[in-house]
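Structure (tokenized):
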């Protein structure tokens, strides 16, 4: 994506969200950070021959998105979270990547003065995409350098469900690792976990993670909402992972409130993902 095409797409996407009349978090995911301050498209790996762009393109896109939203909105507002993932195949260490993203988000915020738009950050941290040390390093570096809210739109691949005594997740991760990158790294981290599956297993995994923190010294997960992929499934197809936003939110809210140590007073956001 070039700078000019990014600007056009960003402005149109922001305007469409402004016209929706809905307030809340909007997460823009820009994919994987690579060496040389480059970005690789979401859904790709190092071997993918997709074009790379300078990470400053993300800032330009965000600026145009905010301008489009401000032009087309009514009284609705947006929390615009600029996000990347924890894929560690980009030739850059977790700490360096987190520090770079913290600086880029700050730069984008300084450049955006659009009415009704607040700029913050997001991360999609998944056990299958890096070792836990890489992801922890990213969170530590980001939160050390940037005090904005960081929305953790994470998965809990292979983690146990509520009631299990296991603490093992996929790829060498533990429940403690998932909790850390979703809440424990800093008080500014808020979890909007992936609740894609229609059978509710993911909600039960997250109640286990929150229960682990609540029963120890780390504290329960600070949930801000639930993340679904119904629209993305309609675009590209999927099986049993096409929860609607309402279904994902309900699964998580009901599961958390089924246990006293994980109960929440509110779950503010219901968010769905789509491909551009």
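Design, position by position:
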């Amino acid at each position: 994506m070039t700078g000019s095409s990014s600007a056009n797409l960003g402005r149109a996407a922001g305007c469409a969200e402004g016209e929706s009349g809905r307030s809340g978090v909007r997460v823009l995911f820009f994919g994987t950070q690579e060496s040389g301050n480059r970005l690789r498209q979401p859904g790709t790996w190092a071997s993918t021959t997709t074009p790379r762009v300078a990470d400053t393109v993300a800032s330009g896109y965000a600026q145009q998105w905010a301008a489009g939203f401000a032009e087309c909105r009514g009284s609705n507002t947006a929390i615009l979270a600029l996000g990347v993932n924890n894929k560690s195949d980009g030739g850059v260490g977790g700490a360096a990547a987190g520090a770079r993203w913290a600086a880029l988000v700050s730069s984008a915020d300084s450049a955006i003065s659009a009415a009704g738009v607040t700029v913050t950050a997001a991360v999609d941290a998944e056990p299958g995409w890096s070792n836990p040390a890489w992801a922890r390093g990213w969170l530590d570096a980001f939160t050390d350098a940037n005090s904005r809210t960081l929305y953790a739109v994470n998965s809990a691949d292979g983690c146990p469900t509520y009631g299990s005594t296991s603490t093992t997740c996929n790829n060498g991760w533990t429940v403690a690792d998932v909790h850390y990158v979703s809440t424990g790294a800093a008080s500014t981290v808020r979890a909007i976990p992936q609740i894609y599956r229609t059978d509710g297993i993911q909600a039960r995994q997250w109640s286990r993670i929150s229960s682990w923190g609540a029963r120890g010294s780390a504290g329960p997960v600070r949930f801000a909402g639930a993340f679904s992929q119904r629209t993305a499934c309609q675009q590209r197809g999927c099986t049993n992972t096409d929860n609607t936003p309402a279904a994902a939110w309900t699964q998580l809210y009901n599961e958390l409130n089924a246990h006293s140590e994980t109960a929440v007073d509110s779950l503010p956001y219901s968010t769905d993902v789509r491909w551009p």
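Reviewer-requested clarification: Strands lie at 24-29, 32-34, 38-40, 53-54, 78-85, 117-124, 150-152, 189-191, 225-228, 269-272. Residues 80 and 119 are 5 Å apart (CA to CA).
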